[in-house]
Design goal:
3 domains; 53% helix; 5-stranded antiparallel β-sheet; 12 strands; Immunoglobulin-like; alpha+beta; f41 fragment of flagellin, N-terminal domain
Length: 409
């Protein structure tokens, strides 16, 4: 059987072959130019879907890295502020101890009070520190307003916290969110003043008490103070019938707490509290645990500045004020140290997460590259092959189009 090929068919088939070769060559050229093996989803539908998913993962990992940088910068700035606060508190404590020197004159205490005022103002300013965006670091969610304000007409705490205890959290990975700061309420405001006790009533000729061993008293206070039932914070010391012992009982519960040897006119100690009682058998001394108070660092220093500037406060009263400021500064310093330690822990976690995210980024990028990127050696080889095929098609077309029956007549 003879197959006849018309001139039109010959031209159409030759042109189709050339166009097909040009299309394959164009695709290979784009692969080489872009470095991508997948130019359209139709090239590899499964691979294209995997590339989209891996690209989303890479974008998310890079966002986590940006979050991590913001998080680290915020905490490092807060850490610097707290370091300055700690230095100021240490200096204030040194001055307070110096003020307790009995040989100092009024003008010496006045000079100490001036430096303490400067330290008070410095700590107040530090508590209202701003970040690079102009937001108040310790104000919580109310970061557009100062964390602390000064109200001279306020009773008790003139340095008042105006923020809230909300802290911003930043997502550092798929599962981990960390606080990118601390509220001034935790760092500066929720600082306990010195725990104390008071004589409420006595049938003895005289009775006084003072907290001489603060750590021992603090342990007793924390173990026994009842914030719900006030009567359980009342105690009674009763001198026995022979006058050589006192029995301490809880007035609210009726429980006997301790029995201590006693000599009238000589001090005795109960859980850090030193009693000085002149009494006879059967006499009682009622005393109570003072409710705990919270006092921020500027207020603690301010209270002691007033004492230093009041020449009428001397002797035991001055010593009590000195004990108050030292304990208050120690408690404030401990709160700052806890916050600093917390910052260090979060920075360590952030650094570990950053390292892990970078590892994930590298492995994800490699996985995407293995699917998406072209093998240049293979692509260049195919490019040369397609160029040869196109040239052959073009040459064949040229020779075939020159064939004619007239050439054989």
């Amino acid at each position: 059987m003879t197959i006849r090929v018309s001139t039109n068919q010959l031209f159409d088939r030759s042109i189709a072959n050339i166009l097909e070769s040009q299309e394959r060559l164009s695709e290979v050229q784009q692969n080489v130019a872009t470095g991508r093996a997948i130019l359209t989803p139709s090239d590899d539908p499964v691979g294209a879907a995997q590339v989209i998913r891996l690209t989303e993962e890479l974008d998310q990992l890079r966002q986590y890295q940006r979050n991590n940088n913001l998080f680290t910068n915020a905490l490092e700035q807060e850490e610097a502020v707290l370091r300055n606060v700690n230095d100021s508190v240490n200096r204030a404590r040194q001055l307070a101890i110096q003020a307790g020197n009995g040989v100092l004159q009024e003008e010496d205490r006045a000079a100490i009070s001036i430096e303490l005022e400067n330290i008070r103002d410095e700590i107040f300013d530090l508590s209202n520190s701003r970040n690079s965006d102009g937001e108040f670091i310790f104000a919580g969610s109310r970061s557009q307003s100062p964390a602390f304000t000064f109200n001279p007409s306020a009773v008790g705490n003139e340095f008042q916290f105006q923020g809230d205890d909300t802290v911003n959290e930043i997502q550092l990975s798929d599962t981990i969110r960390l606080s990118a700061g601390d509220s001034g309420k935790d760092v500066f405001e929720n600082v306990f003043a010195r725990f104390n006790a008071s004589v409420d009533a006595t049938t003895a000729a005289s009775a006084t008490l003072s907290v001489q061993q603060q750590e021992a008293y603090d342990r007793f206070f924390e173990a026994n103070f009842d914030a719900v039932t006030a009567a359980n914070n009342n105690f009674r010391a009763t001198i026995n019938g022979t006058g050589d012992q006192v029995t301490i009982t809880n007035v609210g519960t009726g429980a006997t707490i301790d029995t201590i040897d006693f000599t009238s006119g000589q001090p005795f100690t109960f859980n850090g509290i030193e009693f000085d009682v002149n009494g006879a058998p059967g006499d009682t001394v009622d005393f109570s645990l003072d409710p705990p108070e919270k006092r921020n660092l500027p207020q603690t220093i301010n209270d002691f500045v007033r004492v230093l500037n009041d020449p009428t406060i001397t002797g035991d009263a001055f010593q009590e004020a000195l004990n108050d400021v030292i304990v208050g500064l120690d408690n404030g310093r401990e709160a700052v140290a806890d916050a600093t330690s917390s910052i260090g822990g979060r920075l360590n976690v952030a650094d570990s997460i950053l390292s892990a995210n970078r590892d994930f980024e590298v492995s994800t990028a490699e996985a995407r590259s293995s699917i998406q990127d072209v093998d240049l050696a293979e692509a260049i080889s195919e490019l040369a092959q397609q160029e040869g095929a196109l040239q052959a098609a073009q040459a064949t077309f040229g020779r075939v189009t020159q064939l004619s029956l007239f050439d054989f007549i």
